[in-house]
TrEMBL record, chain A:
Assembly information from the UniProt record: Oligomeric complex that consists of at least the alpha, beta, beta', gamma, delta, epsilon and zeta subunits.
Keywords of this entry: Cytoplasm, Cytoplasmic vesicle, ER-Golgi transport, Golgi apparatus, Membrane, Protein transport, Repeat, Transport
Chain ranges of the Coatomer gamma subunit appendage Ig-like subdomain domain: 600-745
Name by which UniProt lists this protein: Coatomer subunit gamma
GO molecular function: structural molecule activity
Gene3D superfamilies cross-referenced by the UniProt entry: Coatomer, gamma subunit, appendage domain, Leucine-rich Repeat Variant, TATA-Binding Protein
Family according to the record: Belongs to the COPG family.
Residues in Clathrin/coatomer adaptor adaptin-like N-terminal domain copies: 31-542
Domain Coatomer subunit gamma C-terminal: 748-863
UniProt cross-references to SUPFAM superfamilies, sorted A to Z: ARM repeat, Clathrin adaptor appendage domain, Subdomain of clathrin and coatomer appendage domain
Task of the protein: The coatomer is a cytosolic protein complex that binds to dilysine motifs and reversibly associates with Golgi non-clathrin-coated vesicles, which further mediate biosynthetic protein transport from the ER, via the Golgi up to the trans Golgi network. Coatomer complex is required for budding from Golgi membranes, and is essential for the retrograde Golgi-to-ER transport of dilysine-tagged proteins.
Superkingdom field: Eukaryota
Record localization: Cytoplasm; Golgi apparatus membrane; Cytoplasmic vesicle, COPI-coated vesicle membrane
From TrEMBL, chain B:
Keywords: GTP-binding, Magnesium, Metal-binding, Nucleotide-binding
Family (UniProt): Belongs to the small GTPase superfamily. Arf family.
Binding-site list for GTP: 24-31, 72, 130-133
Binding site for Mg(2+): 31, 50
Native source organism of the sequence: Caenorhabditis angaria
Pfam families: Arf
GO molecular function, one term: metal ion binding
Name of this protein: ADP-ribosylation factor-like protein 6
Record carries keyword Nucleotide-binding: yes
Length: 864, 190
């Protein structure tokens, strides 16, 4: 007994040590910890010492230290020796370490038997933890061996054992769902457990097992909504499942909604809140359905519990935009929360009111929030900024109040996310509201004067380069931009040079001054900045207006891999008498800075000699089905446009397991005999289940037609085969045909949509010569937005400068469209759509300009 | 670990703990052997193939054995070697009735003998010629010859005919083992 006081005094001393040295684990070295792990190999085991080492090991893993495979394996095998100790705390640490090492060490399955023994043993402390560790180290192949134990554990009487088994099974679902599905009966039994936690976890797993089968999920909800679950957690989960069913189903079951609604009267507040939150988040709810849920939330707003108030006001805030009228009924309660001592609640209340409140109350609320905006966390500041953003789009006239407020917030300290939200909001306001442009740009200029985030600085500089030259007084911005060239990091300096060049390109009267500034940049310490400055200077001094426009304002709109291929072909051809023509390079709608989308067909096409000689692909269309998806043979069409030809790729799939198709080809028939196939490639052999492609090459007709509709017939020979082996029954074949849907070739196949960042100057650069104008009445559409969308679709052009957004209630709208015609000709179009007040019909006037008059003719003919 | 065992550990009056490793081909009876050494109420009625290893404890005289019962299936045999270095004795279990795989057992046995963690440490080796009750079983001397035990030099070894299901021969084997382990530990001290 003399050991007891001694142990106590030792504990005290240890405690003192820990306090004096601060964090015991602060300066751990990976190598020394792994070295210490050798102590695990000693006999007998010093449990106290080993526990400390294990804790250190866990700590360095948690800190993200990477441990090599051999080191980890060595440590792991040392840890396995700790099984000989009977110390409970040590053993539980061992389970944790096994879990952590399971991914980085080899041969982790060696502890399978030991863990199985622990999980079926009598020590209740060991059982849940060993189940968790076991499931982590087990792979699909080994799962069979522990299946029996898992089934037993799921229905174990001990709640923590059962829960551990169920939660581990949920994780196993990701790797080996098939095996876990077989445990459904046991899981079902666990759902009827008395233990709240077990019931909740079991319901979750049961849902995961069945979530792919909509009917089964419906049944599940119906079954458990009737015999009421005891656990409030489980009820909450059931509400979520029901809500998901309601959202996903086209014809939702009304009993689901009844269940959620009845949960509003549950005795647990958690369930009541969950139900209310589910109802208000559902789409397409009527006001009668919403009413009880909103009433509940309103009640929670005045609850003495801060958590409930927070939950209620947060939910109201989230749905404020979807159901403004419903949320407005809570305004009185929200007003009370403005002065709540909990700043998070107050912020949410104010932002909710900002979203729903009347225009007149905006000033008062803004004043209120500016009183404590410094006291709330960045996360909530972002909520405030979002509220201001939506407010500005609703009440554009209020920007005068908002802008100074945002500017003030921008000046305060804050994280990157927070600053980003503000900058984005200001940019959004500038883009939506021309009146706010001058003020907004001025604030942003001030911001970049003192901004530590390079990303935001470059973004603002880009915006300045685009928008500021169009303001009445562009020269006032140049000082701000040039300051960046002197003061900032490389990235920002380069962006500033580009912005300056854009000023020079768009404002002719400033060009001289810009040249002076750019000349100074030639001596910059970084080569990227010098390169940009040299390039822009050369352009601005010597090049013509259209070249300046193309290379400074728009940049290259080509696909990098396409450029690489084209240059390679040029070099291989050996014929350097003609200069390399950039127009043959396929264009890309994406900015160069974005990762390039893989072109899945380019390599496939290049492998076929007949097609490769047509040159690079100009554009590949989307996959269009030419058959029903359940047909015996399915055919998809992909159109590839080349400079002078169009290649139709027919992707055929044989779904008949008793047939082998031979010599599969598609025969095309043009009723107007404009289009003649100049070549075709058939599929020699198409076995069951495989998809292969046949190709037909059509050259663009002499007549200049660029559209047409062709009848298509799939022709092939059938050989009967044995469904199981795939071996032919006999050598006999017979011809068969299969009628496909018509192949449409439209003008949009010849045009790649590429948007211009500054439409007006590009429009001027093209000149009047190639302009073609046409006016007609649209009979198939009823509204202006629909007409705008349709015209862009028919022409295959991309809308510029956000002109595709139509203001509400407008009777006239002009949409600016641009693109590139195959062969590299720019095509621009201005289409003015107007509603005729006399008979509400839609009229459209369209002007097309292009670098080549012939192209204008072709495009305009497509519309008519 | 209770307070008494902690105390006895400090004063050195408790039983000395030693690690032993139990190896052998699959289905030779390793887990059954260790199962038989447990108290009657803790025995499991059903022995399943071990995956990796499993721990069990038993004591004789003044020694407590921590036995690492290693899996015998081919794919796990490479893991045995991680435990050689920390063991103070090795038990090799042979299925005497499995004449077909005696050469394989011999290969595995000599692989162990030649491993650096065994070859350099004169730990005692106990070979159990198990499943003696089977009608077709080979005798201990036959197995001794087949495994080539007679050419072992420089270490103490013994072979014992056993039946792990009934426990015949186990006591004798453990008696020998505890004497030899004690001798091995003493020889290291001096």
């Amino acid at each position: 007994m003399s050991g007891k006081p001694k142990a106590q005094s030792r504990m005290k001393r240890d405690k003192k040590d820990e306090e004096s040295s601060g964090n015991l684990y602060a300066h751990l070295d990976k190598t020394s910890v792994l070295q210490e792990a050798r102590a695990f190999n000693e006999t007998p085991i010093n449990a106290r010492k080993c526990s400390l080492i294990l804790t250190k090991l866990l700590y360095i893993i948690q800190q993200g230290e990477s441990i090599g495979r051999t080191e980890a394996t060595e440590a792991f095998f040392a840890v396995t020796k700790l099984w000989q100790s009977k110390d409970a705390n040590l053993r539980r640490l061992v389970y944790l370490v096994v879990k952590e090492l399971s991914n980085i060490s080899d041969d982790v399955i060696i502890v399978t038997s030991s863990l199985t023994k622990d999980m079926t043993g009598r020590e209740d402390v060991y059982r849940p933890a060993s189940i968790r560790a076991l499931c982590r180290i087990t792979d699909t192949g080994m799962l069979q061996t522990i299946e029996r134990y898992m089934k037993q554990a799921i229905v174990d009487r001990n709640g923590s054992v059962s829960s551990a088994a169920i939660v581990s099974s949920t994780h196993l679902m990701k790797k080996s769902s098939e095996v876990v599905r077989r445990w459904a009966n046991e899981v079902q039994e666990a759902v009827s457990s008395d233990n709240h936690m077990v019931q909740y976890h079991a319901l979750g797993l049961l849902y995961h097992i069945r979530c792919n089968d909509r009917l089964a999920v419906n049944k599940l909800v119906q079954k458990f909504s009737k015999n009421s679950l005891r656990s409030p957690y489980a009820v909450c989960y059931l509400i979520r499942i029901a809500a998901r069913c309601l959202v996903e189903d086209d014809q939702p079951d009304s009993s689901m909604f009844t269940f959620i609604e009845s949960s509003l009267r549950h005795k647990s507040e958690m369930v009541v809140y969950e139900a209310a939150s589910a109802i208000v988040s559902l789409p397409h709810t009527t006001s009668a359905e919403l009413q009880p849920a909103i009433a509940v939330l309103q009640l929670f707003c005045s609850s003495p519990k801060a958590a409930l108030r927070f939950a209620a006001v947060r939910t109201l805030n989230k749905v404020a935009m979807a159901h403004p009228t419903a949320v407005m009924s809570c305004n009185v309660d929200l007003e009370k929360l403005i002065t709540d001592s909990n700043r998070s609640i107050a912020t949410l209340a104010i932002t909710t009111l900002l979203k729903t409140g009347a225009e007149s109350s905006v000033e008062r609320l803004m004043q209120q929030i500016s009183g404590f905006v410094n006291e709330i966390s960045d996360e909530f500041k972002i909520v405030v900024v979002d509220a201001i953003r939506s407010l500005c789009s609703r009440y554009p006239r209020k920007h005068a109040v908002m802008m100074p407020f945002l500017a003030k917030m921008l000046r305060n300290d804050g994280s990157f996310e927070y600053k980003k939200a503000i900058v984005e909001t200001i940019i959004a306001i500038i883009e939506e509201n021309p009146d706010a442009k001058t003020a907004g740009l001025a604030h942003l200029c001030e911001f970049i004067e003192d901004c530590e985030h390079d990303n935001l600085s470059t973004r603002v500089l880009h915006l300045l380069g685009r928008e500021a030259p169009k303001t009445p007084n562009p020269s006032s911005y140049i000082r701000f931009i040039y300051n960046r060239v002197i003061l900032e990091s490389t990235k920002v300096r380069a962006a500033a040079v580009t912005a300056l060049a854009k000023f020079g390109a768009q404002c002719v009267d400033l060009r001289k001054s810009i040249q002076v500034l750019l000349r100074r940049c030639l001596l910059d310490s970084d080569d990227e900045v010098r390169d940009r400055a040299t390039f822009y200077l050369k352009m601005l001094t010597e090049a013509g207006e259209s070249v300046i426009h193309n290379f400074i304002l728009d940049g290259l709109q080509i696909s990098p891999s396409g450029l690489e291929r084209a240059v390679l072909d040029y070099l291989k051809s050996g014929n350097y008498s003609a200069p390399f023509d950039l127009r043959i390079v396929p264009v890309s709608t994406q900015a160069l800075s974005q990762p390039e989308k893989l072109e899945p067909y380019a390599a496939q096409l290049a492998a076929i000699p007949e097609i490769a000689k047509l040159g690079p692909v100009f554009k590949s269309g989307t996959r269009i089905a030419l058959t029903e998806s359940i047909a015996e043979y399915t055919v998809h069409l992909i159109k590839h446009t080349f400079a002078n030809a169009i290649v139709l790729q027919f992707e055929c799939k044989n779904t008949m397991n008793d047939q082998l198709l031979l010599d599969v080809s598609v025969e095309l028939e043009d009723p107007e005999s404009e289009w003649q196939p100049s070549g075709s490639i058939e599929i020699p052999k198409l076995p069951y289940g495989e998809a292969q492609s046949a190709y037909t090459i059509l050259e663009f007709p002499e007549s200049g037609a660029i559209s047409g509709s062709l009848g298509a017939i799939l022709k092939f020979k059938v050989m009967d085969v044995d469904p199981t082996s795939g071996e032919p029954d006999s050598e006999d074949t017979y011809d068969q045909t299969y009628v496909l849907e018509e192949v449409e070739i439209a003008v949009s196949d010849s045009i790649q949509a590429v948007s211009k960042s500054s439409f007006a100057s590009a429009w001027e650069a093209l000149g009047e010569d190639s302009a073609r104008e046409e006016t007609f009445q649209l009979s198939t559409v009823d509204t202006i937005p629909e007409a705008v969308k349709k015209i862009a679709e028919i022409l295959g052009l991309s809308p510029c400068e956000r002109s595709d957004r139509v203001g509400e209630g407008k009777t006239q709208h002009t949409v600016l469209l641009s693109g590139i015609f195959r062969g590299g000709y720019d095509v621009l179009s201005k289409a003015t759509v107007a509603i005729d007040p006399s008979d509400n019909s839609i009229n459209m006037n369209i002007i097309i300009r292009s670098t080549e008059p012939l192209v204008s003719d072709l495009v305009i003919s497509a519309v008519v | 670990m209770g307070i008494f065992s902690a105390l006895s550990g400090i004063f050195g009056i408790g039983k000395k703990q030693v690690n032993i490793i139990v190896v052998g081909l699959d289905n030779s009876g390793k887990s059954t052997f260790l199962n038989h050494l447990r108290p009657v109420d803790q025995r499991s009625s059903q022995i399943v193939p071990t995956v990796g290893f499993s721990m069990s404890n038993f004591s004789t005289g003044n020694l407590t054995f921590n036995a690492f019962d290693m899996a015998g299936q081919g794919k796990y045999r490479s893991m045995w070697e991680s435990y050689y270095g920390t063991s103070q004795a090795l038990i090799f279990v042979v299925d005497s009735a499995d004449r077909m795989r005696i050469p394989l057992a011999r290969d595995e046995f000599w692989m162990i003998m030649d491993h650096k963690d065994i070859a350099n440490r004169p730990i005692p080796i106990m070979v159990l010629a198990n499943k003696m009750d089977e009608t077709d079983a080979m005798s201990a001397s036959e197995i001794s010859v087949s495994l080539g035990l007679d050419v072992i030099r420089g270490r103490h070894w013994s072979i014992q005919a056993t039946c792990a299901t009934s426990g015949v021969g186990l006591d004798k084997a453990l008696e020998w083992l505890s004497v030899e382990v004690q001798r091995f530990l003493d020889s290291r001290k001096t």
